[in-house]
Design brief:
alpha+beta; Arc Repressor Mutant, subunit A; globular
Length: 236
């Protein structure tokens, strides 16, 4: 594996995960589906810039340069930017912010310092304080199964506006990611079908291929590089 990842959870109500990685050589990797949008800082060949990336609803192949370093702040479902809808970012419609130096960039008529692995929470807190990042509580209520406050149609509308996708798409992505974690731990394909809530092996194979980019056997072998993947629960 040529991409080496490190990640940590966060106590921020807006942040799902903070991660960073570096590449030991150039190569292709599978960029797997993810329901979360994120901000990522790239450092490569003397250039530093921040990218706002949307969720991905399918797996794609991506080209990774050698000797690159990346920092990512992955946001919780329901967190969004009022001036930049998630629907405009989904499936690699990335936005690069203007860089001023190795240490700062230009955003919303102000100069911002690039966040670090250690200070991601304070960086996001400043975004929230200035109204650039907000949170839709209806999304978390929907994930928790609380449908009393809003009608089902209202919940679906809130979910799509805040995440750029339907709840059904979200569940499919999370189930495929959960299955991939099981397979990478050495769980058999048959046991993964049962534990992750798939109908049969064909259902598992189709989902893994579309959302992860590999066959279940490929995931078991762990011979090909995947993008950032952390432990997740089943959402069948």
């Amino acid at each position: 594996m040529f991409l080496v990842f490190e990640d940590r959870p966060s106590d921020s109500p807006f942040i799902e995960r903070v991660w960073h990685c570096h590449s030991e050589r150039a190569g292709l990797f599978h960029s797997i589906a993810s329901p979360h949008w994120e901000m990522a800082v790239t450092r490569h060949r003397g250039r530093t810039y921040l990218t706002i990336r949307g969720p991905e609803t399918k797996a794609t192949m991506a080209d990774c340069p050698a000797d690159g370093e990346w920092l990512g702040i992955r946001f919780k479902l329901g967190t969004f930017m009022p001036k930049l809808p998630v629907s405009r970012l989904i499936d690699r419609q990335d936005v690069d912010l203007p860089s001023l130096s190795d240490h700062s960039f230009w955003f919303e008529d102000d100069v911002w310092e690039y966040p670090s692995f250690e200070n991601a929470e304070s960086f996001v807190a400043r975004l929230v304080k200035n109204g650039f990042v907000s949170r839709d509580g209806a999304v978390q209520a929907a994930l928790a199964g609380d449908h009393e406050a809003l009608s089902l149609r209202s919940i679906q509308r809130h979910f799509r506006m805040a995440t750029g996708m339907t709840q059904a798409t979200y569940r499919q992505i999370e189930r495929a990611r959960h299955a991939t974690q099981l397979l990478r731990r050495g769980v058999s394909i048959l046991d993964t079908v049962h534990e992750a809530g798939f109908f049969d092996q064909s259902h598992l194979a189709r989902s893994i291929k579309r959302l992860i980019g590999q066959t279940p056997a490929d995931v078991l072998s762990q011979e090909e590089q995947l993008s950032f993947l952390y432990k997740t629960a089943s959402h069948s």
